Amino acid sequence: MEWDAGKLLELSGGYWAGCAVQAAVRLDIFTALAAGAKIEAELAQTLDCDRRGFAMLVTALVALGLLERCADGKIAAPENVLALLSKDSPEYLGFIIRHHAHLMPGWARLAEAVRYGKPTRDESSSHTDSGAEREAFLLGMFNIARLQAEKVAEALDLSGRTKLIDIGGGPGTYAVYFCKRNPNLVATIFDLPTTEPFAKKIVARYGLSERVGFVSGDFLSDTLPKGRDVAWLSQVLHGETVDDAQKLLNNAAACLVPGGLLCVQEFVLDDDRGGPPHAALFALNMLVGTQGGQTYTAQELEAMMRQAGAVETWRLDVALPQSCRILIGRMG
Questions:
Q1: Does residue 290 contact residue 302 with C-beta atoms inside 8 Å?
Q2: Looking at 69, 87, 105, which one is the last position of a domain?
Q3: Mean pLDDT across the stretch 153-159?
Q4: Quick one: pLDDT at residue 113?
Q5: Which of 39, 128, 251, 295 is surrounded by the fewest CB atoms within 10 Å?
């Protein structure tokens, strides 16, 4: 890319637009507009907002194309925006946007994290004592996974497989979609006890409570359920140190029967570490938020999977967003 002053300033100030969207979601503006257009002043009062501040945010959202002003003076949201940002919509993405807002303070201190090599967040969203932050994180993971889980389930051949463990599975989105795709499959979500209520709610929503169970524990220190023929690890390795990532893969491999599949989904760096941008930036997210997390190249992940006991590895041929890739290992 050929950079100039304008492009650099736009990049540096890009968080302004992100913060405006996050504020609108946190104030629940789009849910309030789901029933129809409303007078701006009345909406500000309903949402308990200062009229001046609310008017400025509305103007910014109109400029971004997320709101529109009607001929009668009311404000409204386009249908495609409401589909994604109203809580009443099954496509709601607000939880992951709320999670992004929780990440902002740590990112604001990125230079400090780079200088000292230590996180700038007091606790990670997966281990927080805040119920609201935990909800935003776990249901945010559902928001993201739901967008591609059906595609992943179609691409990953699990025919003949009967027992899957979703390690660090959070709300269990992938376990649900794998079972939907494969009628003979049962699954177990393994995650922290605080995750269980969210997972059970998602599983019940899809009518799969009889086939998708939950076991609570720490995947680094507790014994994983044995006798599985598929282990699925989606976006968990990047939160661990290199040593703990290897330990986690070893633990996952130990719960598999001979010939079992060790499946890893991650934001993957190019082997020359030249990109892609999302995977490279996500590594910084791990820098500010974890004690030793990072993103990996496919070569690095395959080497760790072979060290865990995979006799062969391959990369699943499926196009996914945000530099997301799936690697498969078959155990001896």
A1: no
A2: 87
A3: 96
A4: 96
A5: 39
Q: What is the pLDDT of residues 29-76, one digit of tens each?
A: 999 999 999 999 999 999 999 999 999 999 999 999 999 999 898 999
The CA-atom distances, in angstroms, between 80 and each of 21, 244, 295 are: 15, 42, 33
> pLDDT tens digits for 243-293?
999 999 999 999 999 999 999 999 999 999 999 999 999 999 999 999 999
State the CATH number of the domain containing residue 38: 1.10.10.10
Sign of CA dihedral 197, 200, 204, 209: negative
Amino acid at 62: V
**Residue carrying structure tokens 């230079």:** 111
- Which amino acid is residue 316, in one-letter code? L
- To the nearest 10°, report the CA torsion of 197, 198, 199, 201: 80
Q: Return the C-alpha torsion angle 42, 45, 51, 56, nearest 10.
A: -80
Measured distance CA(21)–CA(33) in Å, rounded: 15
What range defines the domain where residue 151 resides? 146-331
- This prediction's pTM: 0.92
63 shares a domain with 156 = no
Pairing verdict, β 212-216 and 74-76: unpaired
Q: Which residues contact 122 (CB under 8 A, 6 or more apart)?
A: none
Q: Do residues 267 and 282 touch, judged by C-beta distance below 8 A?
A: yes
Q: What are phi and psi of 123, to 5 degrees?
A: -155, 155
Number of domains composing the chain? 2
Is pLDDT at 124 greater than 70 in this prediction?
A: no
Q: Is 172 strand, coil or helix?
A: coil
Strand partners, 68: 76
Segment 126-135, tens digit of pLDDT: 666 677 888 8
